[in-house]
């Protein structure tokens, strides 16, 4: 035991001497950094360790622990690692090459993406060019279509109801279930075109106001100048010697010639145009309701001339109306010339029966002269109805055109000129006016009894006449159920939600109201055709009819006094003979019936024309 104890120090010394070279060999040599093993117990498990790279060269005194936060320095221990292997530089080169390869691959991918994007842009550009080419072609076709539609009396405005439906008043009306009241409220501020502004547009397709007024003045001056020239010729032909019998004077002949010369443009010119539409509140867009029957039922104005009206009635199988209108417009003027020719041919015939034939032809010619154009009176009443129908949002436009001027003056001059043609003389014709009246011959009444009977009849006539001119005789209204099928699709939905009866009321017209309205509108619009309409209603339809009855009553009074045979018992009957050929209340009533019959073709588009009780009373 004593021999072994001294060996321990030597063994410990040898162990220490062996550790020194091992520690020297394991010293880690690093250039700029060392691996620091930090044992932190902050928000980690007690045995958690974190390794990090620190800058040794930048650390104070080369101590890596001084290169970190002091707190970490207190918590870290520096461990010197063995030197890195000699192939570190090779690994770095491989990493660098890999990075370059990855960058090249990324660049190639980017280039491919850019190339694909460029190709897509080129394809989109080609598509855009193709769409632009197609768009330009469609625009050209649409322009042609709009021009064609404009020529036919209509256009294609876009209808936008979005602004209307987003309006607070409309939304409130929809919630309250009273869309009609909301539309009427908004319609008070709506702007609608007027007839004066729309005369030459596709809304009416007529002439300007100046053009019509000039045409009226020219026609009137022409028919007044021709009789004046004839009067001068009559004065030159007179002499102190007895003249041979003539057929008729120059002034009557030239007036008759003038009337037929203006009848020619009356056949081919438009008489009356009207257009009914619906103003969309807020946007103030106008949706057409009336449709042109002659151009494919497109929305637009209805332009009527006598010639086209007959064609339209015939094409729509309204044969009765076409025949009646043709008789009054064409056959009556032609028959008047034929009767006048026969009468003048046999005026001085030596045969009594031929002269009597001539006399009867002249009498018939005088009777039918005022029946040339009863539809002109109907146009006057229809103009009143169209104008009074406007109650926004319903918009109505109407105008008289050159055809109305020519036809109306033709009718008046025909009636006047026919009275200037003397009747051929036949035996006993001088005493025809002094024969006893028909009532006296049939009932055997005395002259005083005839006067009492005539007085009773005249009183009854006066009552009916007064009631007739103040009672509506013509009516116009729009059928909402039919209108819904003749408006654009988006407009149909609106019409289904409103009550058209509250917006579109039936309009009726009497002769008296129409008469004074024409005079008022003439004062405001300065349209000479309105003055002509007033003269026809007030002068020829009302005043001359009343004057004729007053003359007949005077003739009955003269007849009651008694006169010797061979003398004319009532000179007033001669004036009554002239008045009865110029009073046109009967022509007006016939015009109402004819127009109602012809207006049946407009029922298909919701425009209904009807006769009222005033026509029957008159």
Structural class: alpha+beta
**Number of spatially distinct domains:** 2
Distance between the termini: 169 Å
What is the 3D form? Answer: elongated
Number of helical elements: 24
Low-confidence stretches: 1-6, 23-62, 64-68, 77-84, 145-156
Q: Work out the number of β strands.
A: 12
Largest sheet: 4 strands, antiparallel
| Proportion of helical residues | 55-70%
Q: How much strand?
A: 5-15%
Compute the average pLDDT.
75
Radius of gyration: 54 Å
What does this structure look like?
The chain is α+β, with helices and mostly antiparallel strands and 618 residues long. The chain has 2 domains: 35-41 and 49-82, no CATH class; 162-237 and 246-617, no CATH class. 60% of the residues lie in helices and 9% in strands. It contains 24 helices and 12 strands. The protein has helices at 7-25, 70-74, 88-151, 162-165, 168-176, 179-187, 195-198, 209-237, 250-268, 306-315, 319-345, 352-368, 375-389, 402-419, 438-443, 447-470, 480-483, 489-497, 500-503, 511-525, 528-560, 572-580, 585-598, 613-617; strands at 33-38, 50-55, 76-78, 272-280, 285-288, 291-292, 298-299, 302-304, 394-400, 474-478, 507-509, 607-611. Strands 4, 5, 8 and 9 form a 4-stranded antiparallel beta sheet that branches. Strands 2-1-3 form a 3-stranded antiparallel beta sheet. Strands 11-10-12 form a 3-stranded antiparallel beta sheet. β4 (272-280) and β5 form a beta hairpin. α16 (447-470) runs antiparallel to α21. The radius of gyration is 54 Å and the shape is elongated. The N and C termini lie far apart (169 Å). Residues 1-6, 23-62, 64-68, 77-84 and 145-156 have low confidence and may be disordered.
